[in-house]
C-alpha cells in the first residue's frame, strides 16, 4: 500500500494507512438519477489522483445485484490495474424481494453474497467486508462469526459493520475484531456523536467511515430552494416543505466559513470530517467533483479553527429527523 498518497490526517483501517477521502461507488449507478459522466472516466480520474479507497456494495444496482461492483471489476480489467493498488470495500445484508428490500444477515446469505461479490468484482479478495445492516432477526454474533470465517480464509482482510449502534458494535467486537464502522456523518448529521457510536469506535480502535459526508449534496450549496431538488432527496425529512428553508442556515454558515478559508463548501465539509479522525466517502458521478473532493485532504484546520467551527455549527438548529435507514435498532 506504499503507493497510496498521504494526507495531512493519518487514517487507518487496521494497520493499513488508507488514502482519504475515499470514493463512494453507489454514485456509479446514479443513485439520484442525475446526469452523469462515463463511470469509467470517473474511476480513472479517482485512480490517477490517488483516491483509491473505494466503497461499494452488492445492492448498489439498478437491476439485480452488483452493478456498481461490476463497473469496478471492468475498470480493473480494462486498465490492467494491480489489485493491491485499490483498497476495495463491499457489503452484504440487503436482499431484494421483488420491488422491496429485506435485511438478511444470516451466515448462509453472508457466504453466498460474498462469493457473488468476488465474481462481480473479478477479484480473489476484498480489503474490507461489511455487514450493510444489522438483521433484527439474526443475532449479530452469528453474522460476524460467518464474516470471521471469510477473513480467516484470506478472502477478506478486514471486517466492518454499517449502521450499527454502540451496543451492537461492542457485541460484535467481543466475537471477532471489527475494523471499521460505516455511518452517516457530516456537518449536516452528527447523530453518531450524540448516540455514543463514534466514541465507542475511538475506544475500541475501530475506524469510522462517513457516508453522505456532504449531507446528500446539501452542504455543496447547490440547492438554494427546495424546487432545486428533482429526485428522491425530496422525501428526506430535512428537505421537506417547511424544513428545507430553516436548514439552509447551516449552508449559509458553511459557505461563510469556507469562503474565509478560501476553499469550496464541499471541501470545507470533507476536511472537517477528516479532522474528526473519520474517513469520508463522498460519491459523485462527475469527474470534476472527484478532483474537488480529493483536494480537501490538503486543507488544515488549527485547533482554534475547529473550536470555532463547532461553536458556529452548534448554534444552528436543524429540523427534521434523520432519514430512516431500515434497521438501526438493538438486535
UniProtKB/TrEMBL annotation:
InterPro entries: Aldo-Keto_reductase, NAD(P)_OxRdtase_dom_sf, NADP_OxRdtase_dom. Transmembrane segments: none annotated. One of its GO terms (molecular function) is oxidoreductase activity. The keyword Membrane does not apply. Keywords: Oxidoreductase. It comes from the Eukaryota. One of its GO terms (cellular component) is cytoplasm. Residues 22-311 form the NADP-dependent oxidoreductase domain. PANTHER family: AFLATOXIN B1 ALDEHYDE REDUCTASE, ALDO-KETO REDUCTASE YAKC [NADP(+)]. This is NADP-dependent oxidoreductase domain-containing protein. It comes from Eeniella nana. The lineage of its organism: Eukaryota, Fungi, Dikarya, Ascomycota, Saccharomycotina.
Amino acid at each position: 500500500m506504499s503507493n497510496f498518497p498521504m494526507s495531512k490526517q493519518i487514517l487507518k483501517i487496521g494497520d493499513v494507512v488508507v488514502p482519504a477521502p475515499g470514493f463512494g461507488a453507489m454514485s456509479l449507478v446514479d443513485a439520484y438519477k442525475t446526469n452523469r459522466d462515463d463511470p469509467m472516466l470517473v474511476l480513472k480520474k479517482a485512480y490517477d489522483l490517488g483516491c483509491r479507497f473505494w466503497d461499494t456494495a452488492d445492492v448498489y444496482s439498478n437491476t439485480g445485484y452488483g452493478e456498481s461492483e461490476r463497473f469496478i471489476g471492468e475498470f480493473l480489467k480494462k486498465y490492467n490495474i494491480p489489485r493491491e493498488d485499490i483498497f476495495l470495500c463491499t457489503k452484504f445484508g440487503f436482499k431484494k424481494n421483488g420491488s422491496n428490500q429485506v435485511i438478511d444477515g444470516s451466515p448462509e446469505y453472508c457466504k453466498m453474497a460474498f462469493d457473488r461479490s468476488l465474481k462481480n468484482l473479478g477479484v480473489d479478495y476484498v480489503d474490507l467486508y461489511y455487514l450493510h445492516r444489522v438483521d433484527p432477526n439474526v443475532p449479530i454474533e452469528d453474522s460476524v462469526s460467518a464474516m470471521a470465517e471469510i477473513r480467516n480464509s484470506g478472502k477478506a482482510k478486514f471486517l466492518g459493520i454499517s449502521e450499527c449502534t454502540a451496543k451492537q458494535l461492542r457485541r460484535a467486537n467481543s466475537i471477532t475484531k471489527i475494523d471499521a464502522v460505516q455511518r452517516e456523518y457530516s456537518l449536516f448529521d452528527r447523530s453518531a456523536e450524540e448516540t455514543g457510536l463514534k466514541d465507542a469506535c475511538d475506544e475500541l480502535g475501530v475506524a469510522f467511515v462517513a457516508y453522505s459526508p456532504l449531507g446528500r449534496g446539501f452542504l455543496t450549496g447547490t440547492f438554494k430552494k427546495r424546487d432545486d431538488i428533482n429526485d428522491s432527496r425530496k422525501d428526506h425529512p430535512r428537505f421537506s416543505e417547511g424544513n428545507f428553508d430553516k436548514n439552509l442556515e447551516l449552508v449559509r454558515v458553511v459557505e461563510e466559513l469556507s469562503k474565509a478559508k478560501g476553499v469550496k463548501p464541499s471541501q470545507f465539509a470533507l476536511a472537517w470530517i477528516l479532522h474528526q479522525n473519520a474517513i469520508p466517502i463522498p460519491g459523485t458521478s462527475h469527474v470534476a467533483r472527484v478532483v474537488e473532493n480529493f483536494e480537501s485532504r490538503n486543507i488544515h484546520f488549527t485547533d482554534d479553527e475547529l473550536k470555532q467551527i463547532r461553536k458556529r455549527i452548534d448554534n444552528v438548529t436543524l429540523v427534521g429527523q434523520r432519514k430512516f435507514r431500515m434497521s438501526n435498532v438493538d438486535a
